[in-house]
Amino acid sequence: MEVLRELIPWDGYALSAWDIGTGTHRHITLASEGYPTDLQDHMNDAFVEQNPGFRVLHTRVPHALRWLDLARDWEIQFARTSSAEEHLIPAGFTEGATMCLRLPDGRYTGALHVSWKKSAHATDEARRIIEGFRPVLARACDLLSDVQHGVQDLGPEAHVALVSAEGSITDMPGRSMGPILSDPEVLRDLIREPTYRARRFLWASTEGLCHRIELVPWRGRTTMLVEQRISWPFGLTSREAEILRLVADGMSNPQIGKELFISPRTVSTHVEHILHKLNCQSRAQLARFAVDADLLLMGSALGRAHSTSAR
């Protein structure tokens, strides 16, 4: 921004990135000068959601617009909007420009807001210079860039989503959520899981196939979910994975049998097989190993798998 600052005079600016992980319209300030905190908060929230000028910029115009451009070309008297009357003008600004930032593939990443105290400084040349910085500023506002580098290493069949602390789920650009991450029950289950115990879980399909769901902490309290098909670890069957989960939860054989509608004797046989496969000597050791080795089956997957090999 220092280079741009040397090319054009301004009295205030804010470079705002869309915080896609929140699942809302909210933005965050990456850099700012001359904008008080309450003005930054407004530009990152209510301005994006409610201002008619921003709506035009976001949906219909591929370049920067000043207040005078909005009045002349779009019949929007920006100076009479609540953003101007309640925030920008009281801060001493009489003219300004906003430019929405998009990557070459069209994905929106954020916006640049520039403000002047003298309208004469909002020249056509200033607007052209601002627009010349669009590519580099769009990349700077791409909060997904670091995550996408990691996603590129995943196989083509992997599904990815972002979940905010409030529980809203958002697509990762270029990746599908897939049917599992799109299932509201799975999301509720992940939120309920004590994530201090594990960051990766197993999930069983109705066909008895194994999927791994990984929770990857991202910015702030946003979490990236990665789901992909894997082979059952350690040669476990889907039924054994169910029983292992319930053993880790501290349930007895009769309790497990009641939960899965099988006899305690059948549960005991499965537990013996699991102890052998995981090279454990006791149920306590088995429970600890299940957590340490990321072998916990998600609660919503219990009872889903009924393959012949699982019985």
Global mean pLDDT: 90
Low-pLDDT stretches? 307-311
Q: Count all strands and give the number.
A: 10
Q: What is the element string, with H for helices and E for strands?
A: HEEHHHEHHEEHHHEEHHEEEHHHH
Major sheet summary line: 5 strands, antiparallel
Structural class, from helix and strand content?
alpha+beta
Give the C-level CATH assignment of the largest domain: Mainly Alpha
Cα radius of gyration in angstroms: 27 Å
Strand content: 15-25%
CATH superfamily of the largest domain: Winged helix-like DNA-binding domain superfamily/Winged helix DNA-binding domain
Structure description:
This protein starts with a helix and ends in a 19-residue tail after the last helix. Helix content is 39%, strand content 20%. The protein has 15 helices and ten strands. It has helices at residues 2-7, 37-44, 46-50, 52-59, 67-74, 82-88, 124-132, 134-140, 145-151, 178-181, 184-192, 238-248, 253-260, 264-277, 283-292; strands at residues 12-18, 27-33, 65-66, 95-102, 108-116, 159-163, 169-171, 200-204, 210-217, 223-230. With 311 residues, the protein is of the alpha+beta class. The chain has a five-stranded antiparallel sheet, with helices on both faces. Strands 7-6-10-9-8 form a five-stranded antiparallel sheet. Mean pLDDT is 90; it is low at 307-311. Helix 12 crosses helix 14, helix 12 (238-248) packs across helix 15 and helix 13 (253-260) crosses helix 14. The protein has two domains: 2-143, Transcription factor LuxR-like, autoinducer-binding domain (Beta-Lactamase, 2-Layer Sandwich); 146-310, Arc Repressor Mutant, subunit A.
